[in-house]
Amino acid sequence: MPAWRDARSHLRLWIVVVAGLAIDLWTKHWAFTHLEGGQAGSDGYELIENVVSLRRSLNAGALFGLGKGMTPVFIAASAVALLFVGYLFVHSSRRRRSLHVGLALVLAGALGNLYDRTFVQADVVRYTVDGRTFLEVVKVIEQTPDGLVVGDWPEGQHRRKIPAAYTPEVARSGVVRDFIKMEPRFTLAGRTIEIWPWIFNVADAWLVIGVGLLMLNFWWDHKAEKRSQQQQCAAAPPK
Description:
Layout: H1 7-34, E1 45-48, E2 52-59, H2 71-90, H3 97-119, E3 121-129, E4 132-144, E5 147-152, E6 157-163, E7 169-174, E8 176-182, E9 185-188, E10 191-194, E11 199-200, H4 202-235
């Protein structure tokens, strides 16, 4: 029986989707109402020493901060991903439990970040210093002839100034709330290198885990198909 006609398959899929989405949105809300400051304000809260800390960060890009400033593209990509998840579920068997969990986690992660890109709006400031372009996601407090006064989103704390000489440009954009930072690092030739430099959120984790489960299922399918072909060849009468 196909999964889309099976009540248990639907129940399995949607319970994981709703639970995953609720956990993601709740943790984002908690982080941005209980953690102090942003990247410019504090080092956050060390959850496990030298392993993981919690610090607020706004991401104008995609997974782990990649592709900043391309919010409309990522919204369109999220919509395509949702359609792809629906296609795989409809064409799967009700016995594919791990596949359904993987699809549900991908769906929960995509919806969590899509919610932020659609409803969480912040000021994205682009400016140039000594020929290098920088991008900051902030709350613009005031625009003056001398430059911009900005602060951490959403409260406007830890105010600082971006001089007019840096030619700052402001755009309002949908952003994603991140707050999980992996801390392991090592020193090489006197230089400290972070093993995982990105700040991410629970939705990103759901996406990675879900895609991992999907890849495992595709690998199992490939192995099963190869085994079936070998059995057919072995059973075929000799010519």
